Amino acid sequence: MNIPAVTCIDDALRIFYGYSEIGNKEIKKLLSLRSSATVSRLKNMVKDEMASRGILSYGRYKINTAIAFEVWGIDVDDLEKRRKKLKELGLQ
Q: How many domains are contained in the chain?
């Protein structure tokens, strides 16, 4: 499955550091999604990985944020470097 790209570095970092678990609302904001079906498919990918690691979720409809970013290939260190560079260039 193709993973949509992060559309806003600040939103991605805010979600990563602000939530230990995320749900539909945060996923839609992170990846600028409208389709509930796509959100469900993305969540199921993460739930499968969580199950394989024996990690439980606190919320029934939530997934672990760190594992979600890992499964979806979102590199937080890279986002932080890009954000820093944008600020250095005065573009943010």
A: 1
